[in-house]
Design goal:
Chain lengths: ~600, ~475
């Protein structure tokens, strides 16, 4: 432990002297107010410390004490339903202590050590058993939705179970078991601390082959992400990044959601906090908050803690993945994290890379996203868990050549491109269908084919090629007008309009439309494709274009998104209408010819 | 005992460097005495052992190395507050400049404030009626929101901001309100426009003004919005008032910030603005909202609603100032030069404008059940009319289909009837919505896709034979004033 003195203060960076024994990334307490900081550079006995709280009022000569620990967080039951700042201080407790505004030097533990849980031991365990890291000792019901698996933490060594866990109520601090390793008896508690910048150990990574079902049609159908995959949503302000993140947090079929509000608006976090306890998970009938952990380091909170917030979030997510759950981390926005890095880098007077960002920006981003994945967890039962990461990026002016966007695209597999123009038209989600991509189609093909619909792939590719054709035709229309197009091209335009307005467009605020199950998604698109094919055949048989454009069934298609999930018979009616109305247009035609 | 230093070593732009200072702390307030006895104020930016970097709010003109004396006051820049600040005029640092008596402080508050705990916030969803259709109908303002006006040079942002200040009410709820007005680097005439407006409407006794004009010290502007928001926080959260804060012009604020950054030789971000511009702006804009009350589920009486005004250099929305602002604020109202040239006031381009808090502030129980759907329909129809307009320019109107022509006509009427209104015209939300419905009679019913059937049945006026007739009938009062 070192005991030094401040010599320099520049924004969130302080320099202290007399820090000869300090280690890199060790946590230090600064001044009598005990502000939390992390050592990020060492020169001789000088340490450069980024401080996670406001530094105003600090002066040279004040003391700095190291703690011997890296920046770590508490892991154990009680994380769910919490709202933390960037360094895992519970904001609700801070509110209870100091009121509406966050003052400095508040010291609050991340988990409640008084809360008691009913511990249910793993019945297979016997004293004297060989036990390894990651093995299950028992479980506690953390919320109605989630059973929290209590495992041998990776901070301990595997060995012989000396004292097996017993049924009973206990706090996270109580010793629940003892393990002997290398002749030493280790006590196991439900809580342990883990350094946020170190990925948690796993057995091995495996290939993700199941989609993360989001209920968002443009995502699930056209640009799916797999469970354990990575995606990015870059877009200018107002294009709906946050709404998409919120939709995924609400509706995606992950077991647990970790939502990291990194340098964003305070009211957005409030929105989540107020809305989630009232939203009911359709599968379990419980409030969504019971599966959610929130990390809120809003834009006006200290910039260094913003940098830590994404690591805090992903560490919590990894911990739940260790239990064999499917987790989604939603990080909004990674640009603010990158800017926090840039600010510290500037204060350290490092040579800047692109746009002033530090040269290590791409590697930090890559390391972060690489902590995602589908894995075989450590432990002898070979259970599997997944961790998906969806990061929003806020490039200046929506310009995708921004270094953060480029560095992110290099590592993620799904790109949802938000477009200004779509947002202006209030086409939400404003995910552009021509520029977005997903590299998971191949991995997921088999799942969609066998678990949802045989024709899934076929319908999707047909619809997508129509949209591409539409883009070309629109160019043409701009030059020569719509009347000069052939009948079949006009049909392409009309069908594409249905795809855009009646399938891709989805209202996050309409209770019937906010979430669509995979089978309904398929039927919706199938209806449109079916109509298109029928029209094409009719055109070949010289049916009049005007009649085809004015088919009454088109209005029904415009309203099919409101068909209830539990009454999909409505689609049969539409399929029926298509057949009869197309046939009708043909007979009229013949009648017309006969005259 | 305050020590006096005359150890200035270097003077660069608005900054001075002192040596041999015993104990200075970051953000500490500094008093500088010039050779002639003039007093100026500054704050400590950086401390490196005994060397201290100080930023002077009133500039360094006349400061010398040999004789200028510097005192460190041991506290940060504070604002004296009491209920008497209402109706008073202060300079950019929060000193009274209206020849009135000094404020006897109830409290002295650090102008930097502390961040609001997100957990302590209440999500804003109380509709504010501004009486302006383009805002109320499509980009609704709610109490506790921060909604900036993105403008350009020569556009009527001051008129619009003043009209909002004059007309804003929460229908059915009368409550104590106040306006905090912060002028940063604007001209005397612009500031005077607001002051006269406040006086004429009798609002002056509910207004607190912080004035830093174009010829006032540039660096003082860095403190101005913070002083204003400190006053607003006091009035809102300690005195239970609903405070509307107008900050104009934020572009001048950012330029002052850039000036300091350049003098400090910091590595610049885009267009020379400092890399921490986002964080800095956030510490201003985030000082808005509603807070929780004592008991669970209660809302603390009082709120801060912010309307920052900024001029976009070259009307460029991707310029760092509007860009970063848009990422922090809850939407934006964008003024458009083309509409302005057409003589439409307010020249609000609704398409790129946005209110992020709209969806939870409107609809049944807040405005009217049909509001969310008709707003979406108007947006998409107007967007389509604009697209068709472009097409018509290339191909000529003759090449358009009937539906296209209907949309185009509707788009024109939209600008003329819905967006356009008089400077003193205060429309209720019902008036705004009914103009909207009238416009929808101009397009085929099959094209109304964003509204559910039952709403259409209930609200869509019966289509008359003449396209002009229904819109004119309902919007008549409006139109007469609009046309004058």
């Amino acid at each position: 432990m070192s005991d030094g003195r401040i010599v320099k203060i520049s924004g969130p960076l302080i320099v202290a002297e007399g820090m000869g024994e300090a280690r890199m990334f060790e946590v230090a307490r600064v001044s009598d107010r005990e502000l939390i900081g992390e050592i990020i550079e060492l020169h001789g006995d000088q340490a450069y410390i980024q401080v996670y709280e406001d530094t105003s009022g600090l002066g040279p000569g004040e003391k700095v004490v190291t703690t011997g620990q890296s920046l770590s967080i508490d892991l154990g039951p009680g994380l769910l339903e919490s709202i933390y700042d960037g360094i895992q201080r519970p904001l609700n407790i801070i509110y209870g202590q100091v009121g509406h505004f966050i003052t400095r030097g508040i010291n609050v533990p991340g988990l409640d050590s008084k809360r008691r849980f009913d511990f249910i031991p793993n019945p297979d365990l016997k004293e004297g058993d060989e036990i390894m890291v990651g093995d299950t000792l028992g479980e506690v019901k953390e919320t109605e939705l989630i059973m929290h698996r209590v495992m041998v933490p990776p901070t301990l060594k595997g060995g012989i179970l000396k004292r097996k866990p017993e049924k009973g109520t206990c706090t996270i601090e109580d010793v629940i078991a003892e393990i002997e390793a290398d002749g030493e008896v280790q006590e196991v508690r439900m809580i342990h601390r883990w350094p946020v910048r170190t990925p948690r150990p796993i057995a091995r990574k495996i290939l993700p082959v199941k989609p993360l079902v989001t209920g968002q049609r443009v995502i699930d159908m056209f640009f799916p992400i797999s469970q354990g995959g990575t995606a990015t949503v870059p877009g200018p302000f107002g294009a709906g990044k946050t709404v998409i993140q919120h939709q995924l947090a609400k509706w995606s079929d992950a077991n647990i959601i970790v939502y990291v509000g990194c340098g964003e608006r305070g009211n957005e976090m409030t929105d989540v906090l107020q809305e989630f306890p009232q939203l009911i998970d359709p599968k379990t009938g419980r409030p969504l908050m019971e599966r959610t952990v929130l990390i809120a380091n809003t834009s006006n909170m200290p910039v260094a803690a913003r940098e830590a917030s994404v690591y805090t979030g992903i560490t919590i997510a990894e911990y739940y993945r260790d239990m064999g759950y499917d987790i989604a981390v939603l990080a909004d926005s990674t640009s603010r994290w990158a800017e926090a890095m840039r600010e510290m880098s500037g204060r350290l007077e490092e040579m800047p890379g692109e746009e002033g960002y530090p040269a290590y920006l791409p590697s930090r981003l890559a390391e972060f996203y690489e902590r995602s994945g589908k894995v075989v967890c450590s432990g002898s039962d070979e259970r599997q868990g997944t961790l998906s990461v969806i990061g929003a990026v806020s490039p200046p002016g929506g310009d995708l050549s921004d270094p953060v966007v480029q560095a992110t695209l290099k590592v993620v597999k799904v790109f949802w491109s938000l477009e200004d123009q779509l947002a202006f038209e209030r086409h939400f989600p404003a995910i552009g269908w021509l520029s977005s991509y997903s590299l998971y189609h191949d991995n997921l093909r088999e799942y969609f084919r066998s678990e949802v619909e045989e024709e899934w792939e076929d319908v999707r590719t047909t619809a997508m090629s129509l949209l591409q054709k539409e883009a070309e035709l629109k160019e043409l229309v701009r030059l020569v007008g719509v009347d000069s197009l052939s009948s079949s091209d006009r049909i392409v335009l009309e069908t594409s309009k249905h795809i855009r307005e009646d399938f891709l467009h989805q209202s996050a605020f309409d209770p019937d439309d906010a979430y669509t199950r995979l089978n309904k998604q398929f039927l919706m698109l199938k209806v449109i494709v079916e109509l298109h094919r029928a029209c094409e055949r009719a055109i070949e048989k010289k049916a009049p274009l005007r009649k085809l454009l004015e088919l009454p069934v088109r209005e029904k298609i415009a309203r099919m998104k409101y068909i209830k999930e539990d009454d999909l018979a409505g689609f049969d009616a539409i399929f029926g209408d298509i057949t009869t109305q197309i046939a009708g247009s043909m007979t009229e035609n013949r009648a017309g010819e006969a005259e | 005992m305050v020590t006096e230093y005359n150890t200035i070593e270097e003077i660069v732009g608005p900054l001075i460097f002192l040596d041999d200072v015993d104990h200075a702390t970051v953000e500490e307030l500094v008093e500088v005495e010039l050779p002639g006895g003039e007093q100026r104020r500054g704050k400590v930016l950086e401390v490196n052992r005994n060397r201290v970097l100080v930023q002077l709010f009133e500039g360094t003109r006349g400061v010398d190395i040999a004789r200028t004396k510097v005192r460190f006051l041991g506290r940060s820049l504070e604002l004296s507050v009491s209920p008497d600040i209402l109706g008073r005029i202060f300079n950019g640092l929060g000193m009274p400049i209206d020849d009135g008596p000094a404020i006897i402080p109830e409290k002295r508050l650090d102008i930097n404030g502390d961040p609001i705990n997100p957990y302590a916030r209440v999500y804003p969803q109380e509709f504010i009626q501004t009486g302006i259709s383009a805002i109320d109908g499509l980009n609704t303002l709610v109490r506790g929101q921060k909604l900036p006006i993105f403008s350009g040079f020569g556009l009527p942002h001051s008129e619009l901001a003043a009209q909002i200040a004059r007309q804003a009410t929460v229908p059915g709820r009368e409550a104590a309100f106040a306006i905090v007005f912060a002028a940063m680097g604007i001209t005397f005439e612009e500031a005077n426009y607001f002051i006269r407006d406040f006086q004429e409407t009798g609002a002056m006794e509910r207004v607190v003004l912080f004035i830093n004009l174009a010829n006032d010290p540039t660096i003082e502007r860095i403190a101005t919005p913070r002083a204003a928001l400190t006053a607003a926080e006091y009035l809102a959260f300690e005195k239970g008032m609903h405070v509307l804060v107008i900050l104009t012009d934020m572009t001048n604020y950012c330029e002052a910030l850039r000036e300091v950054s350049v003098a400090r030789k910091e590595i610049p971000g885009r267009r020379g603005y400092p890399g921490y511009l986002y964080t800095d702006l956030a510490t201003i804009y985030e000082r808005a909202g509603l807070l929780k009350g004592e008991k669970e589920g209660e809302v603390l009486e009082g709120s801060i609603t912010q309307i920052p005004v900024l001029s976009m250099p070259d009307d460029d929305k991707t310029h760092p100032i509007p860009d970063l602002t848009g990422y922090i604020t809850e939407g934006q109202v964008i003024l458009d030069r083309v509409l302005h040239r057409k003589g439409i006031y307010p020249p609000i381009n609704v398409l790129p404008s946005l209110s992020r808090l709209r969806d939870k502030g409107i609809g049944e129980g807040r405005t009217r059940e049909d509001h969310p759907q008709i707003a979406n329909q108007l947006f998409s129809s107007y967007a389509r009319s604009k697209e068709i307009e472009e097409l018509a320019v290339v191909l000529g109107e003759a090449a358009l289909t009937d539906t296209d022509r209907a949309f185009m006509k509707m788009g024109e009427k939209f600008e003329d009837r819905f967006v356009r209104q008089a400077l003193d015209e205060n429309r209720t939300i019902e008036e705004t919505l009914s103009i909207g419905w009238d416009l929808l009679t101009m397009i085929p019913r099959t094209e109304i896709k964003r509204i559910k059937d039952d709403m259409i049945e209930k609200y869509l006026p019966r289509k008359a034979d003449d396209d002009e007739a229904p819109a004119a009938a309902a919007g008549d009062a409006v139109q007469k004033e609009g046309v004058e």
